[in-house]
What does this fold into?
Amino acid sequence: MKLKKLIILRHGEPEGRGFLTPHGRRTIDVVAGRLKSEGHLDLRSIAVICSYELRALKSAQAFLTTLSLYPEIDEECYKALFSSDMACDTNAALSVIDEYADRVNTLVIFTHLEMVERLPARFCSQVFGKAPNLPIHPGYSEGCIIDCVAKTCEET
It folds into this structure.
């Protein structure tokens, strides 16, 4: 597995069901800057995916813009993060992560509360054989950083 960091973030604060509020955009900028300055992002080998909801897509686009990165967001992969009824589908998300695990060093996922709360435990249990020792209850633009080399999970 090439993947070194898996970063799972909740979307920024939305206006209604779509675009980000100015505060939501600023918090995405801050998170992107902090993750970069703390060395969590390998900008030479990174993929950013998101759920198909506009607030997650706008968060991913803001994140990429802040980092001056302009790769395309993979629509086929982000659609797999959720079932058609928008229920949290961690099995589908694990399949998407697996697709990227041998292709990039850093994978960033922008998603929603349920997925940010559940996916880290599922991923760590499956890949490391143990669940993370922290509860994840993220606010907007928050989530976790999973270090696949050190086999650790920490809140952002």
Observations:
- The chain has one domain: 5-155.
